[in-house]
Design goal:
UDP N-Acetylglucosamine Acyltransferase, domain 1, eleven-stranded mixed beta sheet, eight-stranded parallel beta sheet
């Protein structure tokens, strides 16, 4: 187990994470962030996420309104074209402009974009009254559902879901991860195929507002972050109304039962938290 190793020194740090990574993630072939999670502790990735996205993402076209609700649905193509949906024809989920099939993202009326450093991949759907602050990167087929609040520095992998009235800030959703109903996800990383039950909260700030520290193998590791939520390995699931305390690390395949509040710290893969 990686807990038996010391954390001092660059060599030991890399050796520790090489083992730690396999306890959380199996496939890190993610756009933009996969290589970072291979080489850095997850909390270190969260420290640089905002600047990474801001420096990488291109500006949305000037024709796209910002800081006010969209008056009509818009379709944004991969090539940077912007079409009012009323000008398009739709058949079996595919949009056409004068017979030409389009590949892009659909933004419904009522969506509010706070800034232009936002990327929407093909197949992305943003439902009415979602509010999105820059910078954000939404990979192919992600869904940003009705009345969600995305507070900047957010990455979603392919097919991820940020759900109805869900709030997310400074977090990664790897491919296929979902927070579909009434969730709060702060300063957290969700591995592939994670599913948060309705009302799950990933708390990220201690009452005393001190740095988040982790107990690992008898060593206390200071993350250098006052805000750190949860690191959830692939296919972790939480039941409805689960609350995870700041600095909770769940190995892949773990389960948190409905209404439970696990203590901060590390849990090995396939843990079942019932109490």
């Amino acid at each position: 187990m990686f807990f038996d190793k010391r954390f001092d020194g660059e060599y030991n740090r890399l050796m520790v994470w090489e083992e730690m990574r396999s306890e959380f993630f199996e496939d890190l072939s993610e756009e933009m962030v996969g290589h970072l999670l291979e080489d850095l502790y997850p909390w270190e990735v969260l420290k640089i996420l905002k600047s990474l996205l801001h420096d990488t993402i291109e500006q949305l076209p000037r024709i796209v309104p910002i800081k006010r609700p969209l008056a009509e649905p818009l379709f944004l193509t991969e090539e940077g074209e912007v079409f009012p949906v009323v000008e398009l024809e739709e058949s079996e989920g595919v949009f056409y402009y004068r017979g030409r099939p389009l590949k892009g993202a659909l933004l419904h009326a009522g969506v509010v974009l706070m800034g232009r450093k936002i990327y929407f991949g093909p197949g992305v759907i943003v439902e009415p009254y979602a509010l999105i602050e820059e910078p954000c990167y939404f990979s192919d087929n992600s869904q940003i559902r009705h009345a969600s609040y995305v507070r900047g520095a957010v990455y979603t992998g392919k097919g991820a879901v940020i759900g109805h009235t869900t709030e997310v800030k400074n977090s990664l959703f790897l491919s296929g991860s979902k927070a579909a109903h009434f969730a709060y996800v702060g300063d957290s990383i969700l591995g592939r195929g994670v599913n948060l039950g309705a009302g799950t909260k990933l708390a990220n700030l201690k009452f005393l507002k001190k740095d988040i520290t982790l107990e690992i193998g008898g060593n206390r590791v200071n993350t250098g972050l006052k805000k750190l939520g949860a690191i959830l390995g692939d296919k972790v699931q939480t039941g409805c109304n689960a609350v995870l305390q700041p600095g909770t690390l769940l190995g892949k395949g773990s389960l948190v039962y409905p209404g439970k509040t696990p203590s901060s710290g590390y849990y090995p893969p396939r843990s079942k938290i019932k109490g």
